[in-house]
Amino acid sequence: MNIQVSEWGWEFVAECFRRFQGEGVFYLFFAAALLYMVFLTWRRQGQWEKGALGYFLLLALTVYNPLLITKIVDVLDMDDEYYRFIWLLPFTVLISWLAVSLEEKIKHRWGRAVLIVCMAALLAFPGKSILARGLTMAENLYKVPDELIEISELIHEDSEDAEPRAAMDFDLIVLMGQYDPSIQLALAYSDISYMESQADTDYKDRFPPNMLSQMHIYQVLYREKEIEGAEFQGALSYLDTDYVVVKKTYPNMPYLYSQGLTWMAETDTYVILKLEGASG
Amino acid sequence: MDNWIKSMIVLCTYFILFFSFGSLITCRKDRGGKSVGLTVLIGFFLYHIIFQIITIPLMFALQPLSRLTLLWTVLALGIVLFSVWKNHKVWGRIFRDLWRNVCGKTVYERLWRLAAVAIVLANVLAVSLIYSSYWDATYYVGSVSYSVYHNTINTINPLLGAAFETFDLKHCLATYHMNDAVFCQLFSLHPLIETKTVMVIVVTILLNLIYSCFADFFFPGNPRAKALFLGFGFLINLCTFSDYTSSAFVLLRTYEGKAIAGAVVAPFLFYWFIRLFRSAGKIEWEGLFIVSWGAVAVSSSAMFLVPAALGIFAVVQWVRTRHFRVVLCSMACMVPAGVVLACYLLNRLGLLYIYTSR
């Protein structure tokens, strides 16, 4: 969701609102809430509404003013953080206030019910919400896949080392440090992010031994390449990596078996391979 | 002990702590009507302010997490006991009022209050059962896991699984996640359960307490309006469009400080603003100050949001009232966020860094 001032110019703020707050119905309801505030202030019924209107007006003139804010964001290099200023607009609170205030004005019970149902329907069924995309239920109290827990247990059962080292599929790396920090990762999240940006060709001359070993493993597991056997085995050995965990769909499985790795266990999606002669 | 039971004990402990801490502010004689919800909310932020004051020196002195856990347990227990001694008579009145409110005068009122409780429970159930995996949990939840595992305070980079060379000043001054680590150590609770289940429930309840405070402000003494307000709040958060709205954060990434900054801090600041627009008493300014400081103890995002919101509020209120005191009070509220922001900017410019080893 990278939006840069340099790319969008004065449209930066509008684009941030479009991408980070969404479109359509929420803005309409928010605008209606503001109009209702204006109405109450005009009728001299508002206690806090006048101050709140001033607050939103000044927000619009400063924090959401593209002429001013694009310069500040550019100088402070805050392009990635700017969207958080949208949170200063209390969408949820004001839309709820509007809905309940209007409901309170209607005297007839059925009229109130119709208004509530209509507003709820307008908010709930535009078809693009997170809810409409579908939510997944957690498999356990840890809120990680059961397979991750299984893999951690299998490695610990097999290894004599209290802190076994493993090279893993990216989906596991993202979660393993959270669930089981005792498993040392040959390639951690930051390593992979860095290596993604590196070309296949000239790294051998540029990288120090530790990174070179990581890059060799990265080439095999992530770019699915067959590098020279000595390089891959040397990398595993240099990084003291005893276990490799890949998806069952990994295409170069015969290559991995030819590099001194043997099948140790498997789960529904993953295969755990172990380096021959490892301490386990 | 079963993880569910342990989680419930930790959950209850949090609310006892927040209520005890908050009572130190709201239960004083001249602080107007006392509400359990507002006391818990103020207590949450006050708790994190005091926790931050204790944690930062220990962190920079490279002390082990276990020392922080011990110190914080003793101090928090002391504060709770002091609050009990100081406020037990007021608590009696508050809970009698609460019970009277819950019972209601009529069956109709009781039903609407029951509906409000059901909405909050549905919200809690939804967020505690949803599975969500975002890459940044690797950092935020990871920092708790690695701190507990290595018995350190914020010195391990969770994205590398290795020690930072210098402290990550953008994140480590917001000590919210180290409180998670302390509770994990104290109750032998897994960091994922603490962050993704216990704190998710805590934050969801806090969010609903804020909506409840707004409902009391907009529609005082109207249980139907409160239930509808809570219902709309839940619905709007569920129907958010983008992954980056405060609603999405509080629904899917509740374990992050950012979720609290967007969904709890920002509306709570607005709550104090509108209360101040109506009448400026001591409790309003104290509340605003505590939220403004507590926010930066919870999330680093607050170091941008709080000064912006306070600055704008100060101008508006000064224009309305012509009291320069408003500007001074708002500036005082900005000081904690300003200090954190200054540290972050100096760090970014390469002028301030603190090593993680001696």
How helix-rich are the residues of chain B, as a percent range?
over 70%
Strand content of chain B: under 5%
**Shape designation of chain A:** elongated
Number of helices of chain B: 14
> What structural class do you assign from the helix and strand content of chain B?
mainly alpha
- Overall 3D form of chain B: globular
| Percent strand of chain A | 5-15%
Total beta strands of chain A: 6
Major sheet of chain B: 2 strands, antiparallel
Brief summary of the model shown:
The complex is a heterodimer of chains A (280) and B (358). Chain A has 280 residues and is an alpha/beta fold. Chain A has 15 helices and six strands.
Question: What does it look like?
Answer:
The complex is a heterodimer of chains A (280) and B (358). Helices cover 55% and strands 9% of the residues of chain A. By secondary structure, chain A is α/β, with parallel strands linked by helices. Chain A folds into two domains: 5-133, no CATH class; 146-275, no CATH class. In chain A, strands 3-2-4-6-5 form a five-stranded mixed β-sheet. Chain A is elongated. Chain B is mainly α and 358 residues long. Chain B has one domain (3-256). Helices cover 77% and strands 2% of the residues of chain B. Chain B has helices spanning 3-26, 36-60, 65-103, 107-129, 137-150, 169-172, 176-187, 191-218, 223-238, 246-252, 257-278, 282-298, 302-321, 324-348; strands at 130-131, 156-157, 162-163. The longest helix of chain B has 39 residues, at 65-103. Classes of the chains: A alpha/beta (280), B mainly alpha (358). The interface between A and B is large, with 74 and 81 residues.
